[in-house]
């Protein structure tokens, strides 16, 4: 093979050789399903291979882990939907877990305070915090995406948690 397709295919093959086992472990850890991890990892490599402009990817390994994480997350969501379909809708005799009005107001106030705490973080610390807690990325994946070491990711997360705790203690509920 020659040309752009050939060079991208070679890069994918190199990624496969270098990262396949780690990608499978990441997926297995995320899904709790080691039997399916190999299939999902192959799907991640196939999605990369199908990129129309693969040679333009600056960090193919980082993209691989992001794609693998998304595939694992999609798998978890599909498995959850399947379990819910198998259980069926709740019956009339089952108690509902609808919170009262006071609980809803208190939760909304707490969430608003937490959003304020997150907004008060420095931009880099906030980005690391959100990538970890919202997107569920690993320290390594965050580091690869942002061009920092996993140790620096850990530093930003620790700082974010300390600042958020301090913010939440400072601002009593209204």
What tags apply to this protein structure?
174 residues; mainly alpha; Rna Polymerase Sigma Factor, Chain: A; Arc Repressor Mutant, subunit A; 2 domains; 7 helices; flat
Task: Give structural notes.
By secondary structure, the chain is mostly helical. The chain is built from 7 helices and no strands. It folds into 2 domains: 3-87, Rna Polymerase Sigma Factor, Chain: A, CATH 1.10.1740; 101-170, Arc Repressor Mutant, subunit A. Keywords: Plasmid, Sigma factor, Transcription, Transcription regulation.
Helical stretch tally? 7
Bulk shape: flat
Low-confidence stretches: none
CATH topology of the largest domain: Rna Polymerase Sigma Factor, Chain: A
Order of helices and strands: HHHHHHH
CATH architecture of the largest domain: Orthogonal Bundle
Strand residue content: under 5%
Largest pleated sheet? none
Please identify the structural class as seen in this structure. mainly alpha
Number of strands: 0
Organism: Azospirillum humicireducens
Family: Belongs to the sigma-70 factor family. ECF subfamily.
Protein name: Sigma-70 family RNA polymerase sigma factor
Domain HTH luxR-type: 118-172
């Amino acid at each position: 093979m020659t040309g752009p397709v050939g060079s991208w295919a070679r890069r994918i093959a190199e990624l496969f050789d270098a990262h396949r086992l780690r990608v499978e472990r990441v997926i297995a850890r995320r899904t709790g399903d080691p039997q399916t991890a190999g299939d999902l990892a192959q799907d991640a490599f196939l999605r990369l291979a199908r990129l129309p402009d693969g040679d333009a990817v600056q960090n193919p390994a980082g993209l691989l882990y992001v794609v693998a994480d998304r595939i694992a997350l999609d798998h978890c969501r599909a498995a959850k939907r399947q379990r819910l379909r198998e259980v069926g809708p709740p019956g009339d005799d089952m108690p509902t877990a609808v919170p009262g009005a006071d609980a809803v107001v208190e939760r909304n106030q707490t969430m608003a305070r937490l959003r304020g705490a997150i907004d008060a973080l420095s931009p880099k610390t906030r980005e690391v915090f959100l990538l970890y807690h919202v997107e569920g990325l690993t320290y390594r994946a965050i580091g690869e995406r942002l061009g920092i070491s996993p140790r620096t990711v850990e530093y930003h997360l620790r700082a974010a948690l300390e600042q958020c705790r301090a913010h939440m203690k400072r601002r009593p509920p209204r």
